[in-house]
Amino acid sequence: MVIGLTGNSGAGKSTVAEIMKKNGAYILDCDKMAHENMQKGGSAYKKIVTEFGKDILHENGEIDRKKLGAIVFNDKNSLLTLNTVTHDIIKKQIINILAKAESRCTVIDAPLLEEAGLIPLCDEVWVVTAKLETRIRRITQRDGITKEAALLRFKNQKSDDALLKTATTVIKHDDDNFEKLEKEVIDLMKSRGIL
Asked: Does residue 153 belong to any structural domain of this protein?
């Protein structure tokens, strides 16, 4: 079974992925894949440098993700350009991995599951949600950014309502009760016969 796992920043998607991994699921982390593809020599590196210029590079030639992030989180067109470059590469990689996957459950962990064209590869789509205040608190603590910077990041993300339209399952993670979340995820996995 292939499960698409998505949710906005700070909702708890990565925590759900960790629980699933701990319980035998094979996780395809699209953010990690994107970062690997952006590294010098990676599949997306040259295209990104061509699109955004050498000003986004560290002295060692690697892409400065903070500089790139400052550009794309402040401009929807720049974000669209970056996503177009990375999504095609990641989708091809995932298709190749799924063709060889032997796990009972493979999870495509992707904040932009629909935008990357990955939903057709999934048997189910699980969406993780949390209240705005909760997400802001988690993001500011995790990334050491201001509330304003968090809200700016959220502005470029889909609304929960839009995400929920693609969902076959919704996991609400409004509090920070890990045991409750873990039990819910394990119960969901058991109900799907993947645990």
From this structure: yes
Tens digits of residue pLDDT in 76-97: 899 889 998 999 999 999 999 9
Q: Count the domains in the chain.
A: 1
- CATH code of the domain covering residue 137: 3.40.50.300
Task: Look at residue 54 and tell me if it is in a domain.
Answer: yes
Which residue range is the domain that position 16 belongs to?
2-186
Q: Is the pLDDT of residue 132 over 90?
A: yes
Secondary structure in 3-state letters for the chain: CEEEEEECCCCCHHHHHHHHHHCCCEEEEHHHHHHHHHCCCCCCHHHHHHHHCHHHECCCCCECHHHHHHHHCCCHHHHHHHHHHHHHHHHHHHHHHHHHCCCCCEEEECCCCCCCCCHHHCCEEEEEECCHHHHHHHHHHHHCCCHHHHHHHHHCCCCHHHHHCCCCEEEECCCCCHHHHHHHHHHHHHHCCCC
